[in-house]
Design a protein that fits this description.
By secondary structure, this protein is of the alpha+beta class. The chain has a domain of 114 residues: Ribosomal protein L22/L17 (Ribosomal Protein L22, Chain A, Alpha-Beta Complex). The chain is 33% helix and 23% strand. A three-stranded antiparallel sheet has the order 1-5-2, with helices on one face. α2 packs antiparallel against α3. The longest helix has 22 residues. The protein is flat and about 90 Å long.
Length: 168
């Protein structure tokens, strides 16, 4: 069973809210709520409220379908943040020499989807394909690491003998 909740017109930019949503995506509901509660980000409070709404939506949908659902079995299936309008949130801030800077205050929309279905197993990494029988090349010995002075370049990179000749 899947349940969705969305919170629209939240104050703050979508970029900052995405930082919080990325922390909870794919986690258990209880673990996600703990992360949101102890996060220092301002958007975490609004996202926590949206998460609790999604849990309530799951319980309500289960009751309507006459199914028992345990909220502890839910996990965050999808969570994403969309950019909201900034048209009516433009503000003017005083600037030096009588000018004015225009500020845009941002809104965002958060959508969280919970599920109690089994989680998909992460795909196992594919085994590297063996190359066709190619001739085996011998490994060349590694060069000694260059000194810091040589890496800098310029006069410091020149060998000492050449520098002494230049001084004469």
């Amino acid at each position: 069973m899947e349940a969705t909740a969305s919170a629209k017109y939240l104050r703050g930019s979508a970029q900052k809210a995405r930082l919080v949503v990325d922390m909870i995506r794919g986690k258990d509901v209880n673990q996600a709520l703990a992360i949101l509660r102890f996060s220092k980000k301002r958007a975490a409070g609004h996202i926590e409220k949206c998460m609790r709404s999604a849990i309530a939506n799951a319980n309500e949908a289960a009751e309507k379908a006459n199914i028992s659902i345990d909220p502890d079995d839910l996990w965050v299936r999808t969570a994403f943040v969309d950019r909201g309008p900034t048209k009516n949130r433009r503000r003017v801030r005083p600037a030096p020499q009588g000018r004015a800077y225009r500020e845009q205050r941002h809104f965002c929309h958060v959508t969280i989807s919970l599920s109690n279905d089994e989680r998909p197993q992460p795909k196992a990494p594919k085994a590297p394909k063996e190359a066709k029988t190619a001739p085996v090349e011998e490994e060349k010995p590694k060069k000694p690491a260059a000194s810091k002075a040589r890496k800098r370049g310029g006069a410091a990179a020149a060998p000492r003998a050449k520098r002494k000749k230049a001084e004469e």
